[in-house]
Known about the structure:
This protein is mainly beta. Helix content is 2%, strand content 49%. The protein has one helix and 18 strands. The protein has a four-stranded antiparallel sheet, with no helix packed on it. Strand 16 and strand 17 form a beta hairpin. The longest helix is centred in the first third of the chain and has 4 residues, at 17-20. The chain is globular and about 50 Å long. 28% of the residues are buried. Residues 90-156 form the Anaphase-promoting complex subunit 4-like WD40 domain. InterPro entries: Apc4-like_WD40_dom, WD40/YVTN_repeat-like_dom_sf, WD40_repeat_dom_sf, WD40_rpt.
Amino acid sequence: MASVASPVIFKEFCPLYYLLNAIPTKIQKGFRSIVVYLTALDTNGDYIAVGSSIGMLYLYCRHLNQMKKYNFEGRCESITFVKLLSCFDDLVAVGTASGRVAVFQLVSSLPGRNKQLRRFDVAGIHKSSITALAWSPNGMKLFSGDDKGKIGICNSSLVLEEPSSIVQLDYNQKVLLVSTLQRTLLFYTEEKSVNQVGTQPRK
């Protein structure tokens, strides 16, 4: 007896002009005109987060149809990765080309939630470009990976070091999935043990 396949839902392509038109294509810095490149993207049911080459984070609220802008204090550097999380508070983690990691705790209109924008900087682990970020489901842990193979956790301690660039991180149930240019592995955060997925290195 043949099984019934679930129906496929087709959606119309939408170029998101309402979002792109809210982000400038150029900015003026002194006498120079600088082109703005979009460098990182993450989405969830509430927000669309877009990182840029000028160090500006553009955060579009889908419910209010509003665009907000957030930046790092100090020098302007390219954002290389953004990661959203919706739990008790809405959080967005941002990584840059120089290895800076920051967490923005967003304002919420709900009672008992955060009423003021807060930014937390995570310093001391990375000296090179952030290539991956992963939240634990409850927002208590943030893992960051860079292009030199270092993986850190939000309390600024090195948890693992790989010989090649980190390309993806994901975390669930005390297990961190790590993908590098050479291999994929499972890092058990309680036992501090590593289990490689597969035996052959990537080509």
